[in-house]
TrEMBL record:
InterPro entries linked to this entry: Acyl_CoA_acyltransferase, GNAT_dom, Plant_NAT
Protein name (Swiss-Prot/TrEMBL): N-acetyltransferase domain-containing protein
Any single Pfam family the record assigns to this protein: Acetyltransf_1
Domain N-acetyltransferase span(s) in chain numbering: 13-170
Amino acid sequence: MVGQWGKEDDEKVVIRCYNDLRDIIQMEWVEKSCEIGNDQTFLFTDTLGDPLCRIRNTPLSTMLVADVGTKLVGCIQGSVKPVKFHDKSVNVGYVLGLRVVPPYRRCGIASILVRKLEEWFVSHNVDYAYMATQKDNDASLGLFVGTLGYTVFRNPAILVNPVNPGRNLKLPSDIVIRKLKVEEAASWYRTHVAPTTDFFPDDIDQILRNKLSMGTWVAYYNNNDKINSWAILSVWNSSKVFKLRIGKAPLSYLLLTKVCNLVGRFLMFLGLTALPDLFSTFGFYFLYGVHAEGPLCGNLVRALCDHVNNMAASDDGGACKVLVVEVDGESNGGDLMRCVPHWKMLSCDDDTWCIKPLKCEEKMSDLGEFNDMFWKSKPGTLFVDPRDV
């Protein structure tokens, strides 16, 4: 696949499928050249030697790379899955891992990569393509929304809570926490979560059976008078897929980390959580399928999160240093944000999801018709698939 771009007339960009044997060394260089971050903070990703780690657990996926001459200068990944969206069963394609090395940016290579991936989506019966970025990422939004016709449709919040390996958190004595079998968890999700949730995966059974899924837990009160309140969540061990490291951070964060390390024993004695060392590589547990109902469900959500904290504190030899939850800011997402334990300085509320119709694009006179259809439908809560993290 050859695309037109604007650097030099005698150079052409060639888009092809990633070849692990041929490309892995150049891919390491591309990743290092495209670290995520801004002037203050950089988030380094350690793929543990597997450039495809973020899409290996999806039902159908691909990775495309861009060559200019003998140089690999860009890449993009995509995955396909069946979900429920606006009360319909559709196939959605997730766009992720878009990278173009700095010397070759602003030449149209990113646009070519996305369009070629969209063509691959269409060939695999995808109805909608979607992607996630930060709301202040002007370059990404300019490309997807401004140039490629995507529409912003959700603004979830990413909540991050540090794991304190020094002690177990005490759980309330009046709350029962029970681990569900896979069949029971899938039935619970389909009965109680799917009817009010967008992007609920049709293959929830496969997610729950995945080797990275650590299990599903439900919490409820042992007092029969409070039986109408309950909460549920599942845990995905992202530490087994890739690890992260903060490369640069504000001076205040560095100083606070040092102070926490020095007085960690006293913080433990006072029942407080120390700030973990995130400047060496660390893993995380992703809490997904978080859902709660009933007038007293807030404490149940917190109890489940504390239960997972205790799991992380004793597992993986300390590899898991934070718990991550992504909740929708709409509907009951705001309630979950108040219930889920998190540190504001580690969390962010600027995640932005954008979507684009693929199959129906030719049938609509312009994108405005899709926008009218989209916004007239009342959205449910958002299910964040752990395979997309």
